[in-house]
UniProtKB/TrEMBL annotation:
<feature type="domain" description="YCII-related">
    <location>
        <begin position="1"/>
        <end position="90"/>
    </location>
</feature>
<dbReference type="InterPro" id="IPR005545">
    <property type="entry name" value="YCII"/>
</dbReference>
<dbReference type="Pfam" id="PF03795">
    <property type="entry name" value="YCII"/>
</dbReference>
<protein>
    <submittedName>
        <fullName>YciI family protein</fullName>
    </submittedName>
</protein>
<comment type="similarity">
    <text>Belongs to the YciI family.</text>
</comment>
<dbReference type="InterPro" id="IPR011008">
    <property type="entry name" value="Dimeric_a/b-barrel"/>
</dbReference>
Amino acid sequence: MRYLMTTRPTENAPDENLHTEMARFVEELTASGVLLATGGLEPGGLRVTSAGDEITVTDGPFTEAREAVAGFALVEVRSREEALEVARRFRRIVGDGESVVQQVFGP
């Protein structure tokens, strides 16, 4: 089962310990085959909409900064509970904030 985990930005300034712990966490998940991809996201982005034959592109940002998605991780695990445990471990490392975990369907 694959899950997409997204996290919202916080005002917490990262310290060196955070970078060390996160690097160790990412290395562990990568080595075990759980972590498929991870990355940070630009705050703006582009919105592409369609109506009939018309395609419209609009520059972002589209949400308030606190509601934007700051980063993501795509993981492959055996169960929802295992995905939640990965998310719990992530939150323990980064501290206060919010993450969303969603199952990815399809091949």
